[in-house]
């Protein structure tokens, strides 16, 4: 009998599998898929070398060597392959960053939005240090490279074309051009500058030991505020994500591809937003985000752990819909909207010895979102969002006030065109508990932790079992039918877990029931390390 099974983040026991709301059955498939991707790319070393040489416009005698798998870097959504480049006396590294298909609902959508963000920031946020993007390729084998790697006469023609597009008011034409290649990779990719330790240290590696140093903390807050303001400096006309199109333009025409939405959809949540859905009003965006969470609840066989928990989650969703209008400012519901990070965390940030941000190494999941969602990062004091209670909440509030004060000072010194104070709006959202509401909307499962403790008390609402039972009836028609279906799905899920772990006797290691102790929830994606 197998006592443990392997997940990407380590082994899991049967007891742990029954006590988490993660869909362990789905996640078990990630391990063989990851191994297969490693093997497939390792077998394509020559193709990788050829692709890198083509993007860098290297000579025949120059060499590109794929480094051993022990030096590859696996993140939450990408596999990064370092490649050693030798060209004459020059010896450097580049990074081939490949999205992992088993961790994404749609690889090309993710990559097109990420590239779109890179291109937009190259043009509009030159004060933000990001890795140089040499080129990229999609799964349909369309490959693009920076125009500096093309012959002079092609560069000249492309510059004229860029000027013409701007003069005629066409969508912004990027500095990337399609390039024919005979070598193709089995996955989409980005070819990036290898950012080494001389640029800075990854913040998460030094977070615990040095966070208490006041000067470093203030420098970090200032750098974060500058980063957020740089993105927000140019207001956007709609809610959505930038995408790179095959005609080499970048447009704000993709749905708002947030980190949490990708996690949920990859776990089996049916889409509530289609790829081309953008939003001109905050209300329609909030309605569809709530539908995303509804779809997750209905589709996940491990969403609940008993009938009371099922009714509780239905009640929470009912309350969120009922309260949403309190957190959407009427005067701003039709914009302007602002570019924001939906997965900014210490593992994506490089800092110097004094904690000034020196580079941002991950531009995934950047979206134009409502101004009300702008907030100080919840992880600034090192705690998960559901851990911000009591003394920890007081500690966070103190840091938040410092951040907002710095933000306001920087905002006053900037030429802005959006006609409002984002710092004042952040303070207002904190005062009326909008900070917590928007985290409920934008995260994977924060609503299960923070709504009852931080939002409901403002309305004199206590979510007792009796109250939850009443509110759950308002979530949908025939709510008891939903409860019965979710219980049946949970039983089937537990039965499949027993089969996978090789446990034959039903109830041999029975999962905890009832609401005593901590709920069977994992709070995905809410810690300082992100998701």
TrEMBL record:
Residues 504-531 are annotated as: Disordered. It comes from the Eukaryota. InterPro entries: AGP_Transferase, Kinase-like_dom_sf. This is Aminoglycoside phosphotransferase domain-containing protein. It comes from Monosporascus ibericus. The lineage of its organism: Eukaryota, Fungi, Dikarya, Ascomycota, Pezizomycotina.
